Amino acid sequence: EKGMEAHDGQATVWDLDEVYDWIAIGSQTRFIGVVETGGHRNEALRQAVATLNAGFRSQNLAYRCLPLELGKLDKLGQMLVILKINALIVGAEWSQSILDVTGRREEAVEKSAFTDLLLKQPEGWHAYNVTWRNALRALEDTLAARSSVPDAPGARVADAGQAAERPLDRRNVLLVGGNNLARALAFGIQR
């Protein structure tokens, strides 16, 4: 029960069952680390981990997410080997500093200095940025849906097919923000 933990912030038996599905963890289970400030005490992170684990459970996949609380990054590689973690979902606060442990970075990461996914490959950790892809897809889907409505203001029937496919082509886009995430989104919009 909350408040009855031996240590402040320690996962409860309910958390072990409902959030981490500990009973289903076996020798075939692969772990995915989730890195965000506050570790398991961060309620938003706890909810994200619970949602991901519920998705894995519903699909009968032998994956489980574990929140990781990082301090210094110099021992990160050893920690991940011990925990047999081959993938890290990286929160915004760690997205730049964790790049020091990567060997290869995709172009979006190089240009924005923002990563949200690290995958262990035979030659080391590779950094990826999937946020810009998902944000751009959501934006394009929304714009395509709006342009496919015949009575939409400004919709032109001749351009409907192209607009639905790539609604940002030949359009001016104003992106408000100057952090690494905004640079990653700008990278995606320019493509």
In short:
The chain is of the alpha/beta class and 191 residues long. The chain is built from seven helices and six strands.
Describe this structure in words.
There is one protein chain. The chain is α/β, with parallel strands linked by helices. The protein is 37% helix and 16% strand. It contains seven helices and six strands. Strands 2-1-3-5-6-4 form a six-stranded mixed sheet. The protein is globular, with a radius of gyration of 20 Å. The model has no long low-confidence stretch (mean pLDDT 81).
Question: What labels describe this entry?
Answer:
single chain, 191 residues, alpha/beta, six-stranded mixed sheet, 7 helices, 16% strand
Sequence of strands across the biggest β-sheet = 2-1-3-5-6-4
Indicate the percent of residues in helices.
25-40%
Rg over CA atoms = 20 Å
Number of strands: 6
**Total number of helical segments?**
7
Distance between the termini: 50 Å
Q: Globular, elongated, flat, extended or rod-shaped: what is the shape?
A: globular
Give the ordered list of helices and strands: HEHEHEEHEEHHH
Q: Describe the sheet with the most strands.
A: 6 strands, mixed
Beta content comes to 15-25%
List the uncertain runs: none
Summed over residues and divided by their number, the pLDDT gives a mean of 81
**Class by helix and strand content?**
alpha/beta
